[in-house]
Amino acid sequence: MATENMNYGDTISDYLTGTILKTTPEEIVRQTFIRTLHEDYLYPKEIIRREVSIQSGSKILQDETGADIRADIVVYHNKRAALDGDQGNILFVVECKKPNVTDGYNQLVSYVFNTSAVGAVWTNGNQINIYRKTKEIGRLEEIQSLPLYRELWQSEHDAIPQKEELKRPHNIRFLLATCHNKLYGRGMENEDFDLAMDMVRILLAKIQDETGPGLYPRFWITDENFKTVEGRAAVASTIQTLFREYADQYPDIFDAHEKISVGNDCIAEAVGILQKWNLAACNDDADDWDLMGETYEQFTHINLKRQQGQFFTNRLVVNMMVKMLAPEIGDRILDPAGGGGGFATAMFRYLRRKVIMSTKHGSAARDRQLTTIKDSIYLVEIAARLVKIAKCAMLLTGDGQTGMTRGNSIDQYDRLDPWIKSRCFANTTNAPSIIVTNPPFSGQKADSQISDRNILRNFKFGHTYTQQQDSSYIFSESDNDLLSRQSPELLFLERCIDWLKPGGRLGIVLPKGVLDNITCEAYRSWLLDNCNIKAIITLHKDTFQPDTGVRTCVLILEKYSKGHKGINNDRIFMAQSQRIGQDSKGNAVYVVDNNGSSTGVLSQDLDEIAEAYSSFLQDNTAIHPSEYIFSIHRNDLKDHLNLNPQHYSPRLNRAIDHVLEYNEKPGWSVTTIGQLEAGMKIFMGPRWNSATIKVDNPTNTAELTPYLTANGALELRRFTVKWLDFSKATRQQRECRSLLKIKEGDILITRSGTIGKVTYATKNLAMTYLVSDDLIRIRVQDKTLRAYLLTYFSSSMARSLMLLDEYGSVQQHLQPRHIQEMLIPIPEDWESATQEIAAGNRLIHAMENLSLADHLIQNSIFNIF
After folding, report:
1. Fewer CB within 10 Å: C terminus or N terminus of the chain?
2. Which part of the chain is the DNA methylase adenine-specific domain (predicted)?
3. Do 11-156 and 287-449+487-638 come out as alike in CATH topology?
4. What pTM was estimated for this model as a whole?
5. Tens of pLDDT along 798-824?
């Protein structure tokens, strides 16, 4: 049902009637379950009603406040009963609670025994319990699964359908979430088992049953079996047997004694949830129904993140990259940092769809091409556990698991798995034609970088480099010039390009800092010498949340053939993703309609970007430049070979055009800020750590020093003040103290996080506080120029110019040199800018007055604490 993490608008559309309803957590659960009743369990809309009053005799039941008691959902026996609200013809009732709420059983009992209902359902969107009425008044009997439309709720013998009668579920996420919650709830008594893999093992047992011989499923539990310990044990034994039948076909994946490790009751409950559904992938099924992908999101992602800090690539990003790389039948495809197989399974589904759409059912061409793609997808992953999950992913997606191998892709090639060496090896005729990957990042952690000299010596990027007079870079090849450590993502980038066949294509996720950090200029230069950069996409900041806040990008590259040089008029497709379908907590974000109601469609733009890139490949002029999707020529690259699309944004660059227009205006010219005044200083304070001298909640601040973070300095009143005890400071901290002081009249600009926010150093601010180094200081002697600059820095024009120079992976940054080199229009006579100067002086005057008022308030008789 998948209501666990959703962001809707203020209203939601009723699935039954289209009526606009107020969005509440309970309403979201109710609407999602109504959809599930109709789409998966086949109950017609005409027999379903929401919010139905319940009668006791001739009177409507009321709660203690006198309000009518209403069942959240009522399903009637027929359409006539639903139209009449016939309480004597109710089939079952549903109680919906908001997520994480677990009460409501007594309400169900009241509904059932005051109506003709034979059954009841309780759900909070993540869990579901199914009950049927017993002859004992006031007691409901829990059963394993909700009957499909026209299935009997009460029968002397449980009817087991034939395998071919099992139907495909629409709401797989709800199905698996329910199963997971049952397993997790019961499995807490045993911490040794791997819940994620047990879920996979149960799914594989289900697949084995569906695809094995026999008309009737063995993966089944009747209500009679579930009632007894012996019955549950017998069913669990059957499921263990089914898993072993499957596992024995793949001895390279599953150990000889491997089994489902949760208890019999867990297995029995899982069977009850899954048994009615057809889960086996079919080669002739061209839809992108990815069982293992859903399993990852429900179990593997959560458990591996909790246990080992691992996370998986956002599926929207995976799908975009696959579409942009557009593999063909016959391509050899490799993910050298394969993780759980997200890219491998996505590539398989993409190619399978292509085969199904272009060949006839049962044709030799279809069989041959499907076999080809199974043997053309390869993965290398260093973690054995993830290799196993990737193999299972491929099995559940349609096989192709033999290409999933264990190894270290940045080690020497000859240490790779023999399967890779014989079928997907570098510098051979069977080298991969497509590589797609999301390699591990080191972030800012030195211990996550590669320091093994045996690895570093195999990479240009493992050595130091020198810049030549023509601004090109040469990497040393001597072991004497090895780096002490290097970021793994840079080594993977070089390895991917080396591994590719000439003319091959690479899609890689990288930290955004690789695009614009000056320290990466040499690597960008090497990249441009060896590859045609086809596309650069910066991803939304929430793309990998809540797992990591690292800003990321996607590069699509084409490896040059030997001796080929890049052409300066080659065009590079650029895009800046603005919507990723989730917020920073991982909650889904949906498009809302004109009424503010959720449409159920994820609010994301990666599909649009992939489509624009496809048009771009067909005709470089086919895309219409927009604010966030555009292209540039290779020879347009500038400023240390900056590859960040934001640096070339048409919208932001219009600010440069507007500034340069002042060169054509009489009495005006354009210069850089650093050239405005000989004595001007543009600098930032020293980087330092105040944690050891910070005092929390001091009762007496007389001997303490007030300190403001960047946000604290931006406040119009001083609500956020930190207190430092310099009597405990180190020599280095004491030296930083004087350097963190500001002077009255300084213009302050944020340089980290949200860059470009501007404030002014009032007399009180300068005299009283130390101020964070996260603010760039601009110190100007001339008061008229100071007022003019304050107005300019506060403008949208200056803000756009600052954003053009923004860089970084974890946080966005700005350097003093960017301010120094920023263009600014300047009049020959200040009389031409009297309005701008007056605005700056008014702001200074207002801030001084507010600062003084705040100081008086802080020292008033009312501030006694």
Report:
1. C
2. 289-585
3. no
4. 0.78
5. 999 999 888 876 677 889 999 999 999
